[in-house]
Amino acid sequence: MYGGKTVGVVVPAYNEEGFVGDVLDSLPDFVDRVYAVDDASTDATWAEIRDHATVERAPRSDATTGDADDEAHVRADGGTVVAIRHEQNRGAGGAIKTGYLAARDDEVDVTVTIDADGQMDPAMMTQFLDPVVAGDADYAKGDRLATPEFREGMPRFRLAGNWLLTGLTWMASGYWDVTDPQNGYTAISLDALEAVDVEEMYEYYGYCNDLLVKLNVAGMSVVDVPMPASYGDEQSSIDYGGYIPKVSLMLLRNFVWRLRTRYRSHPTGLAYALAFLGAVAVLARAVVAVASALAGGDASDDGDAAADSPVEEASDADDSSGRRFPLSLVVAVVGLVAGVVLDRRNQP
Length: 348
Fold this sequence. Notes:
Blueprint: E1 7-13, H1 20-26, E2 33-38, H2 45-52, E3 55-57, E4 80-85, H3 92-105, E5 110-113, H4 125-133, E6 139-143, H5 148-151, H6 156-173, E7 186-189, H7 190-195, H8 207-217, E8 222-226, H9 240-262, H10 267-300, H11 310-345
Parallel strand pairs: 1-2, 1-5, 2-4, 3-4, 6-8
Antiparallel strand pairs: 5-7, 6-7
Helix pairs in contact: 1-2, 6-9, 8-9, 10-11
């Protein structure tokens, strides 16, 4: 226990042979229960987890056995290691979801997530637990972008992608003071786990971003915990070419869902709706302008035209559209700025 609260740790693992065992060995003594989730690895990850486990349990979604707690043997430090294996690969979010559901079922007070690749320092765990145990936050997450020194260890292409997804996650989640949303070192309270729809959590690598949106809708407070970036010999399984577009689309869907859920009849929702309508009008007028320019170019090749030709009529339409374009742009910008300001004021 830590601060009078039971502590669980979810360790998602996919092809982490040679790393996951060291991570399990290095967890602090105050951890009461560890959920080591093998996401259908193709190497010896499962064997390494089983060597450290005291209990084996099937994921709740495809469980074929009952609760194995009666057969539990505890670690030397008093904590129980629960080994869970997916029959099919479900992604990082799927492994985290399985661990979260198990911790929620066991009514663990605070659940930490830490990767199995050794990039995250278990000695920092108390920094994540402190705000949650004290009741100052419902969810604490790592932030490798907090200082230039902490960002130094992050490869440039990852840093650029992280800042891009940080901006998109600000808009989608409504947590405007949170950075590095892809960080998987987190701590969450039991109240927060029970408040969000864990069963519907995104199962791809954007699960962290998705969870932030769900936490905002549930009115949960979130804090960042500064930590240095660390990359060693482990190999990332993320395909960044597909990762950023896929997660961006998910965030767009989540943004719309959040507005409908939290701000249906709220000034914040109305401001964002105004921004959307203005943006659509700007895009429509831009399309019309391009089409008219192409039509005008085609007609000029045919020689002289009558005064009341379609080209002149199109020109008149262009003038009218051109006058309305700045107004639409102003509406879009004002609506967006107003929406962001109101959104910041209403963040949990």
